[in-house]
Amino acid sequence: MPTYKEFPLADTAEGLTEADILNWHVKPGDTVTVNQIVVEIETAKAAVELPIPWAGVVTELHVEPGQTVEVGTPILTIDVDPGGAAAPAAAAPAPASAPVEEEEMKPLVGYGSKAVVTQRRARKGAAPAPAPAAVAAPPAPAAPVAPRGGYVPLAKPPVRKLAKDLGVDLHALTGSADGGVITREDVERAANGSAPAPAASTVDTGYDPATRERRVPIKGVRKMTAAAMVQSAYTAPHVTEFLTIDVTPMMEFREKLKKSREFAGVKVTPLTFAAKAVCLAAKRTPDINAVWDEAAQEIVYKDYVHLGIAAATPRGLIVPKVRDADSLSLKELAVALTQLTDVAREGKTSPADMANGTITITNVGVFGVDTGTPIINPGESAILCLGAIKDQPWVVDGEIKVRKVLQLSLSFDHRVVDGQQGSEFLADVGALLADPAMAMTY
Known about the structure:
7-stranded mixed sheet; acyltransferase; 21% helix; 2 domains; 23 strands; Chloramphenicol Acetyltransferase; single chain
């Protein structure tokens, strides 16, 4: 007798309320194993692949790619006992002294909340509590039709049930609703042998030819970024300071490192030097690495640097962190930054890797921009912006020479950081980039 379990959308990050379904990696009729990846979702922070905690046969996918689903909503049904081997009657009774446990769902490996377990101890003298019964199976569905070429028809669960009851193959239909979604009327017409209604475009681009405008729903990473920036801009009083420096010595030092055996194969960029400079300068100005706790009415000083790096990805702006960046050498920082940016561009950064930063660097110089006035990330007190390094005239020993010039800008929370501390920190970072040998004095 089949035993069905519904796989709900799990909370992959603290406080997650919803996510978008990106891609299914399984289809009805597929056999899956424990912890096999079955779906890719996009949360407000990142794209995440979800494994399933049971083995069995997929019987139904409840949502389509592109849909937004609330946490806890069933997204997939699986038959965990397709052969009917595990009959409830065969279960042995539990000892009276042992607690009866019923497991709702095992935790996902690396994701989601803990398993939900209820415990109830039998009373003294009571009859032995029976073992938990298997999940009651609904009426056995018709054999699932494997999607053709990986295509999953767009239809809501009630429409799927109607098609199954009427013997209509959804794969043979073209939906008449927006986005090619198959409706109840489409199924009924097919069951009656009527001609299908004219189909709308199978891809809803949001473009309206009449207005020559395209509308895109606000969700995922873009929604999270917007909310965070509004919160920061209207909560923390921002102050931004600027500094222009000659980084010719830093660029020359970079060329030396490229030729050294120790840095062979290691990608050293201006961002690498900036990351090291921020970590060193933060030790001398701890206010820059502190945060304002409004609820507790405290300023929290942090004896570590979880360095955020703003990264532009196909999914939008994200800020993954280099954990304990202040404990890393220049080479270790270079390797960590390369790995971090590569993972971010692939859209594989986990929500955990974007939480609990202490200070951030954003590099607009890679786009050829001189500088900017960045907004502080919530939960931090400062963000450093790197501009483009350009050849410019610069006075050296009373003579005008062409030098490598960089503009820095620092935005900080004036509740935590006063002008003096902000200026001292920015001056320290500038001095370290203008002359890397200054690091020997820190």
